Amino acid sequence: MYRIVRKEKLNANVTRMSIDAPHVAVHANVGQFIMFRVYEFGERVPLTIAGVDREAGTVDIIFQTIGKSTRLLAEKEAGDTIYGFVGPLGQPSELEGYDRALVIGGGVGTAIAFPSAVKLNRLGTKVDVIAGFKNKDIVFLEDEFRAASENLYVMTDDGSYGEEGFVTNKLKQLLDAGEKYDLVVAIGPIPMMKAVVAMTKEKEMKTLVSLNPIMVDGTGMCGGCRVQIGGQTKFACVDGPEFDGFMVDFDDLARRNRSYLSEEEDRDHACRLQIAAEQFDHDDPVQNKE
Predict the structure, then answer these.
(1) Across residues 234-243, what is the average pLDDT?
(2) pLDDT over 90 at 281, yes or no
(3) d(CA 127, CA 121)
(4) Same domain for 129 and 62
(5) How far from the centroid of its chain's Cα atoms is residue 98's Cα?
(6) Are strands 207-210 and 183-187 parallel, antiparallel or unpaired?
(7) Rounded distance, CA 209 to CA 119, Å?
(8) Over 90: is that where the pLDDT of 287 sits?
(9) Is 269 part of a structural domain of the chain?
(10) Taking 70 as the threshold, does the pLDDT of residue 279 lie above it?
(11) Are strands 100-106 and 58-64 parallel, antiparallel or unpaired?
């Protein structure tokens, strides 16, 4: 069992937690992820490692409440425990050796981009950040991003905070103004990453993206997270999740992520994991007591 050391609500649907997991913390690096399970028969869910305190033995995760497992996790409080916390998984980010970098995060992808900005800043790289949100109410990590960057540009779709527009609007403005970066890190929805890569490729600016295909086991055994990189099949869980954006087939990634769209939209669909989870909630006296 893994104890939740700290819990913080970043907005109505996004939560940050610190998990007591010293065996993960000692090996974890930026760009890697963990797989958590709230209880023994729960689904395995991947989350990017958002921070590590090796001395304390804790690992930070930031997640959006979007389904059964993340809802159950969000309902936990500091001092509670979860069943599984496996990692670190995936390949660490390669962020050394850059003079100037631009980190771009869209929506909840902003949380995944955050550790990259922090690591680059600690390496002495001059960092600019573009963080995009739908509106003012869901902006998070603003102070943390500001501390890790020379310039922070907050974008909201409706203009309710920061500047109005998408992250690509700001990127175009910076590129048109002649700004040059040795590295661009873009993490967010597939259309956003695809659009960013199209713009940076014209300027020949190296761009890393973090991919989010369907993932089951996180060890390369299931094959669910197949992605096409430079015409070759890779597995995001063991070969990534970060890849050279110029090599990614974003259209294939989008198609694969829509594989179970009909099941996800079918409210009458009876998922076996969902049934097992509900049965566990009903039968477990500790869960009911809490």
Answers:
(1) 93
(2) no
(3) 6
(4) no
(5) 22
(6) parallel
(7) 16
(8) no
(9) no
(10) no
(11) unpaired
Map tokens 């009909």 to a residue: 262
Spatial separation of the C-alpha atoms in residues 134 and 158, rounded to whole Å:
7
Please check whether residues 123 and 245 belong to one and the same domain. yes
Tens-digit pLDDT profile for residues 149-166: 999 999 999 999 999 999
225 and 245 fall within a common domain:
yes
261/143: higher pLDDT = 143
Res 21: pLDDT: 97
- Residue 151 neighbours by CB distance under 10 Å: 13
Last residue of one domain, picked from the residues 24, 54, 89: 89
pLDDT for 229 beyond 70: yes
Gap between the Cα atoms of 247 and 222, Å rounded: 23
Least confident of 41-55, 121-135, 181-195, 211-225: 211-225
Using CA atoms, how far apart are residues 69 and 81, in angstroms rounded to an integer? 14
The reply to whether 246 and 195 lie within a common domain is yes
Predicted TM-score (pTM) of the model is: 0.85
